[in-house]
Backbone:
């Protein structure tokens, strides 16, 4: 059996809850975030941003700004090398010929202080020709809408959509019309969701320093510094190896820090001035110019028999992802029906351009929106047919061997055990009071593996340094230390895991796709196994016996074979101390394109109360059940489950991008972009199920993203039951709910 | 930019009066500093009034309390006498911002920011609070409801600023209450709000009332028809329903990112009704 396949075993370290190794630094302020890096001679940079939603840039006159004492350089899009591979990302960083949205950067100034740089912004004269704009998906899709970018229409896009439609995809199998004909009840509805921002606490920040030899260093807050290196080196026409990127600690990302915004601009300014340049976004800039998730409008049609069997499902999803094409329709269409074992299913996706910032990944990108629509219709079918919503889901749930709606056939998955656990949970049978409602929803996410490289060194005293290349956004250093300790049979405290810069390891895929605990964990286990093989070899050499006669157990090499002879076990400390005499440094390393990331399901239960006179919603009780495969550090698994639920609650109830008729964003701050505050929330209960992933030695599945998929429908279903009206648009703000209550008559 | 912290009110008034550029008064700074950081204003002169004698004092006066212009939310909330006499004003003021903001923010500042959504203002209007103003021509008193004239604008003349606010004495059987609507539980701006102050006779008859609404017009509204609907009644459901209807009828809101005309108009009435019941319950304990 290959080593990366799952085998059942007893764990010593894995599954415990030790203190995270980065925790003390974070609570004492020693940890360095993106804006904490400084260098002698450093300049400060700020961006000039378009006040227009859509405008041609006829000219930019920087002469007066450049004449201001303290201003050292100004860059515009013309300073970038031409590189079609990264044109969209580059144009998003600095507008090329058109400003595409309110807040789009058109130039940037580096000066001796931020105050001087800000003053210089007022002296830059941009001659704009204002163009018609479109910021909402409904207008964007209609023929006659202002066209955001000419020549971007997708080849397979249905004819009735405007030229803002850039892409089309379709998934499914079976004959849906035949399926609908077998149904006792068909429900068809359209659902809408607003753009929501990831809402990370730490704004984007970086420090760039380009040397006279053209070699550069960049420190930044990112989910993937290798990706930052690759994008920036293309935009600046540098060798990848000429740019070393170091990731800072990260104050949240949720997918939104998987691309670049200010980093290439700071590098350009440093290149131009020969001095280090620091650039830090304000909160206003984060909202206006970094990526929110897509807004959506989805039609869903599902047929069901009286006894709860789904006969066919159809979803037509439309996503709006800002001013450049986006592929989020793919996961959106793939995830819509992924929880179900269906004979006939079809899901389609169409992407539309609008004058908004380019969407960025946000936790299970695309899945919450389409799942919200499907799970709302399933709930309504159950309601009309008088079926228990968990029983009906159990009747249709995907399981091992199910051909999924997006193609692949599932291996071991945990949806049925989750639904059974939800049904048995005391929450599901707790009584409800007046004006209260309960909602449930499934959710699915693929999870991912990808390029991964780690290195693990046995130090002279037997302690261990593990070097990985993925920014730690969810406690992954602790999880890696635990897996290394488990494999080596040593205490967790003996392993220190660090996140290395791009010059220290082979390429590591971004921290996204819920991949890190799975893929970096897999590489860590294999690196530790390589180190064990080497340590056994060293012991065998000292003992003068064949390496095959030595096995590793509980932190020591042991002579185990028939003819091995009697030898005291040789501990990791002894082997480390002796390593200079036995062949030098002992390092295990592993590089892989990790595959076998097991898919993940979740089931959420939400109880809430709606004030019938104001439409105000209070979430009373919330339970998350999720399959973790194997929870390495259960605290962080629970944290992911709770965090996903909380972001989903914000998305469902209050969060939205609000654009005025002028195309300007009206709520670019946490005052009017309403993420939940602590007092808005109940304790989020968690139930971790462990259905091992066959593709990981310990059975790990990613857990970071699935948790945000079910909340939208769970909360919408609960509100619908509480007020007696089916809700179909997010956010369910008090006024929208009050309006729905009145519409009941 | 010039920052001056004068020792007397007279000196502060002279500085403000003599200023040729944009001059701003600094007390708690919870509006001013935010506006400066957001790039909304760049004052040429900032006059910090916290060093002026009496600005941080809460002084009993004729059965009521005089609140210095730099008294923070935390300080007012810690004052047992004010909490007992004007619980609605205190609860309104304490809704502003976070714990940190409460350590700095002031009622006078909330009033002079002249937002129709300021939480302390409707409660002060219902309380018939009187602002004391110092200016180049000396001192004058002015009812709180006459200070804001439109969003961001006050009736204060050049060189004038508020030094204190008087919460007046009130008869036995009196109480007040304030409610605001926000989509969250805290850290937000009122979508609409209502302040109610009333006096009950020993038999529960309402003998006096003032009803105010926030965030439903360009300035805080004093709704006399709502007060009339309950004065002389025992606050039976029909009378309170009339109060609710009078409040909704008085609303002249706008639709903006925080709420629609319809929502504000309806919910302002609901809040006024609910605040009336809270004030009634508090007053009933004091008759």
Residues:
């Amino acid at each position: 059996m290959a080593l990366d396949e799952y085998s059942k075993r007893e764990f010593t370290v894995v599954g415990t809850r030790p203190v995270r190794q980065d925790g003390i630094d974070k609570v004492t302020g020693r940890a360095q975030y993106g804006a904490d890096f400084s260098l002698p001679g450093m300049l400060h940079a700020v961006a000039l941003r378009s006040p227009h939603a859509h405008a041609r840039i006829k000219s930019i006159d920087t002469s007066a700004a450049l004449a201001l004492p303290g201003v050292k350089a100004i860059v515009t899009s013309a300073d970038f090398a031409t590189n079609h591979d990264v044109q969209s990302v580059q144009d998003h960083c600095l507008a090329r010929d058109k400003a595409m949205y309110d807040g789009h950067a058109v130039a940037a100034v580096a000066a001796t202080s931020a105050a001087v740089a800000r003053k210089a912004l007022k002296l830059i004269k941009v001659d704009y020709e204002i163009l018609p704009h479109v910021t909402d998906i409904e207008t964007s899709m209609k023929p006659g809408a202002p066209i955001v970018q000419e020549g971007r229409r997708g080849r397979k896009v249905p004819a009735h959509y405007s030229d803002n439609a850039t892409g089309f995809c379709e998934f499914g199998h079976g004959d849906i019309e035949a399926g609908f004909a077998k149904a006792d009840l068909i429900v068809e509805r359209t659902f809408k969701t607003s753009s929501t921002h990831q809402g990370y606490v730490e704004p984007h920040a970086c420090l760039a320093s380009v040397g006279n030899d053209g070699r550069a260093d960049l420190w930044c807050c990112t989910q993937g510094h290798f990706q930052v290196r690759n994008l920036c080196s293309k935009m600046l026409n540098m060798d990848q190896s000429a740019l070393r990127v170091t990731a800072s600690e990260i104050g949240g990302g949720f997918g939104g820090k998987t691309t670049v915004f200010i980093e290439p601009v700071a590098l350009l300014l440093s290149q131009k001035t020969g001095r280090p340049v620091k650039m830090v976004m304000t909160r206003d800039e984060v909202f206006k110019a970094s990526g929110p998730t897509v807004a959506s409008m989805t039609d869903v049609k599902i047929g069901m028999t009286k006894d709860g069997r789904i006969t066919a499902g159809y979803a037509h999803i439309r996503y709006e992802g800002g001013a450049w094409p986006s592929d989020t329709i793919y996961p959106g269409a793939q995830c819509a029906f992924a929880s179900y074992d269906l004979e006939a299913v079809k899901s389609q996706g169409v992407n539309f351009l609008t004058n908004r910032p380019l969407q960025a990944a946000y936790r299970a990108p695309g899945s919450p929106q389409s799942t919200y629509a499907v799970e709302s219709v399933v709930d309504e079918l159950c309601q009309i047919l008088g079926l228990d919503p968990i029983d009906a889901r159990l009747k249709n749930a995907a399981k091992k061997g199910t051909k999924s709606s997006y193609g692949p056939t599932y291996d071991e998955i945990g949806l049925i055990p989750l639904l059974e656990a939800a049904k048995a949970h005391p929450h599901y049978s707790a009584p409800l009071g007046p004006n209260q409602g309960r909602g449930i929803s499934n959710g699915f996410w693929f999870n991912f593996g990808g390029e991964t490289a780690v290195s693990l060194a046995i130090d002279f005293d037997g302690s261990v340094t593990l070097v990985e290349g993925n920014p730690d956004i969810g406690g992954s250093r602790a999880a890696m230390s635990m897996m290394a300790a488990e494999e080596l049979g040593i205490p967790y405290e003996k392993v220190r895991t660090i996140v290395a810069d791009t010059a220290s390891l082979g390429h590591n895929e971004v921290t996204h796709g819920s991949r890190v605990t799975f893929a970096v964990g897999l590489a860590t286990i294999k690196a530790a196994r390589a180190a064990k093989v080497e340590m056994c070899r060293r012991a065998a050499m000292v003992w003068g016996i064949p390496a095959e006669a030595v096995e590793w157990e509980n932190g020591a090499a042991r002579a185990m074979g028939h003819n091995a002879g009697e030898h005291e076990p040789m501990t990791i400390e002894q082997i480390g101390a002796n390593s200079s005499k036995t062949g030098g440094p002992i390092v295990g390393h592993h590089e892989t394109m990790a595959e076998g990331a097991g898919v993940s399901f979740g089931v959420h239960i939400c109880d809430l109360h709606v004030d019938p006179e104001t439409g105000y919603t209070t979430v009373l009780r919330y339970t998350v059940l999720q399959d973790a495969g194997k929870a390495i550090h259960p605290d962080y698994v629970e944290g992911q489950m709770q965090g996903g639920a909380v972001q989903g609650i914000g998305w469902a109830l209050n969060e939205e991008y609000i654009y005025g008729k002028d195309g300007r964003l009206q709520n670019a701050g946490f005052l009017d972009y309403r993420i939940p505050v602590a007092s808005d929330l109940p304790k989020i209960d968690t139930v971790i199920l462990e259905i091992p992933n066959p593709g990981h030695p310990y059975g790990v599945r990613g857990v970071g993203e699935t948790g945000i998929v079910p909340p939208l429908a769970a909360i919408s279903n609960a509100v619908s039951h509480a007020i007696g009206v089916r809700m179909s648009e997010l956010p369910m703000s008090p006024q929208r709910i009050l309006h729905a209550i009145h519409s009941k008559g | 930019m010039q920052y001056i912290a004068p020792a007397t009110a007279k000196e502060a008034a002279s500085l403000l009066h003599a200023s040729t550029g944009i001059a701003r008064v600094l007390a708690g700074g919870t509006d001013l500093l935010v506006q400066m950081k957001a790039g909304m204003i760049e004052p040429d002169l900032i006059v910090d009034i916290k060093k002026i004698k009496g600005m941080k004092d809460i002084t009993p006066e004729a059965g009521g309390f005089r609140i210095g212009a730099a008294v923070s939310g935390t300080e007012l909330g810690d004052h047992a006498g004010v909490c007992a006499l004007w619980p609605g004003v205190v609860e309104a003021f304490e809704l502003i911002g976070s714990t940190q903001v409460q350590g700095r923010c002031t009622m006078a500042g909330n009033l002079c920011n002249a937002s129709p959504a300021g939480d302390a203002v409707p409660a002060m209007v219902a309380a018939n609070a009187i602002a004391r103003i110092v200016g180049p021509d000396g001192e004058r008193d002015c009812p709180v409801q006459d200070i804001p004239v439109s969003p961001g604008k006050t009736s204060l003349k050049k060189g004038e600023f508020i030094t204190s606010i008087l919460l007046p004495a009130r008869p036995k059987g009196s109480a007040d209450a304030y409610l605001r609507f926000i989509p969250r539980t805290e850290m937000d701006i009122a979508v609409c709000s209502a302040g109610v102050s009333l006096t009950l006779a020993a038999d529960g008859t309402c003998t006096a009332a003032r009803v105010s609404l926030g965030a439903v017009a360009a300035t805080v509204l004093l709704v006399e028809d709502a007060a009339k609907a309950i004065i002389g009644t025992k606050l039976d459901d029909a009378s309170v329903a009339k109060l609710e209807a009078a409040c909704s009828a008085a609303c002249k809101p706008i639709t903006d990112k925080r709420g629609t005309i319809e929502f504000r108009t309806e919910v302002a009435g609901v809040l006024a009704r609910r605040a009336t019941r809270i004030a009634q319950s508090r007053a009933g304990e004091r008759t």
